[in-house]
Amino acid sequence: MTSHTVSELLSKDIVFSEVNIKGWVRTFRANRFVALNDGSTLHNIQCVVDFENTDEATLKRITTGAAVHIEGDLVESQGKGQRVEIIVKTIQILGDSDPETYPIQPKKHSFEFLRENAHLRTRTNTFSAVMRLRSALSFAIHKYFNDHGFYYMHTPIITGSDAEGAGEMFKVSKLDAKNPPLDEKGVVDYSKDFFGKETNLTVSGQLEAETYAMSLGKVYTFGPTFRAENSNTSRHLSEFWMIEPEVAFLDLAGNMDLAEDFMKSVLSDILKNNRDDLEFLENRLIEEDKTKPQLERSDMRLIEKLNFVIDNNFKRVSYTEAIDILRNSKPNKKKKFKYLINEWGTDLQSEHERFLVEKHFKCPVILFDYPAHIKAFYMRLNDDGKTVRAMDILFPGIGEMVGGSQREERLEVLKQKMAALQIDEKELWWYLDLRKYGTAVHSGFGLGFERLVMFVTGMSNIRDVIPFPRTPQNAEF
Ligand code: 4AD
Ligand code: MG
């Protein structure tokens, strides 16, 4: 007999009598009530064991974390809080779980503790909800692009180019411990060891995506990217996933429209299809808020916040306007910004970004037309000769969620910008070819997937929204 899932059994539309289910024991109460979870839903199903007719040895092995196979009858439940339950006919222990050593006990564990047990943390409600939402978000993203005529392309993970020109890359090397490559001084040198070439893990698939946009029209990538910056914040990872659409014949304004429509659609999809997990996480946040001082509590509930983003236009503000706002504001009555914005041309610190979205505009903000010298080489120079057609989308509680731009499509201007930054034309000959043969206005953006998952789940540390976080301190598992 094929197994059922908890989700199927709890669904109101389906009526089963004899059922067969496999899962993990969450709790076992009074030698009688097994709360069984199989990951298909947040909810457990209650399975009632006939302890008088079950041998003592088996009863002892029904412990938190054990894998079991249950056959029985699905009946209406007499108990509170559940519509149905299983009257167990047979219970087979598939895998024991030693209660003395099993780390995930039925109590509240700190997220720090669970991070150290990342291989087991999806056995808790919070992490299973987060990871189900992460999966649903990926699917919603692919669905959006597929519905809008985009092709999904795979860009290389090992690459010779530094797409962002920021030099924050991990080198790739063919480890040959017996015959390590040596430099002139006889020192081990792995830098050119991708079969004699220098390569790194990609920081972004954008440049390769541009090549396909210039033939297939509308494309996107969704893959892992790597940054070697030593940032130990709750919003940075060394390995994160990025969604990067790239579209031919699209200018910056069109790029903003696309990003806004895309994010709203994905959030609507999640609200429609993942209510259970969202409500659970919302309640978790409400409980967490109660432990905080009044000022630090959130002014909106999780689902309300998602609806707010869907229902309101993102505020579009130029960098220059934003600097004026920041110059004329104080973050609160007494304090000034830690990092003062005095001059046009300085990059915004996250405290400025947060002020703009959380205090000033109180909604997602698209900042555009940044000074050229603080942005990447490939961005389209404006007629003022000072600013580029860049856009960053800032979200409350998150800060920068999206970075994008209209790309420089003019060969000579691009060459000049590369020369100024000492980027070798030979390394990017293929990228320059796009400007030689049938060049056209085109644009795209990169959305940090984990930052989106943070926003949707209300989790406050990026390490808690990716299965196995890689940070400067941690690459275990
Ligand atoms: O702003 P970034 O660096 O832009 C790019 O890489 C462009 N090539 C994208 C494009 O136009 N196709 O990164 C894009 C987004 C950021 O806005 C942020 O959400 C996320 O990626 N991001 C990170 N997320 C987690 N950890 C990090 N270290 C991140 N660095 C960037
Ligand atoms: Mg950026």
TrEMBL record:
It is an enzyme of class 6 (ligase). The keyword Aminoacyl-tRNA synthetase applies. GO terms for molecular function: asparagine-tRNA ligase activity; ATP binding; nucleic acid binding. SUPFAM superfamilies: Class II aaRS and biotin synthetases, Nucleic acid-binding proteins. GO terms for biological process: asparaginyl-tRNA aminoacylation. It catalyses: tRNA(Asn) + L-asparagine + ATP = L-asparaginyl-tRNA(Asn) + AMP + diphosphate + H(+). Residues 271-298 form a coiled coil. It is found in: Cytoplasm. The keyword Methyltransferase does not apply. Keywords: Aminoacyl-tRNA synthetase, ATP-binding, Coiled coil, Cytoplasm, Ligase, Nucleotide-binding, Protein biosynthesis. Its EC number is 6.1.1.22. It comes from the Bacteria. Residues 131-467 form the Aminoacyl-transfer RNA synthetases class-II family profile domain. CDD domains: AsxRS_core, EcAsnRS_like_N. GO terms for cellular component: cytoplasm. It holds the Pfam family tRNA-synt_2. InterPro entries: Aa-tRNA-synt_II (IPR004364), aa-tRNA-synth_II (IPR006195), aa-tRNA-synth_II/BPL/LPL (IPR045864), Asn-tRNA-ligase (IPR004522), Asp/Asn-tRNA-synth_IIb (IPR002312), NA-bd_OB-fold (IPR012340), NA-bd_OB_tRNA (IPR004365). Its main location: cytoplasm. Homodimer. Belongs to the class-II aminoacyl-tRNA synthetase family. This is Asparagine--tRNA ligase. It comes from Pseudalgibacter alginicilyticus.
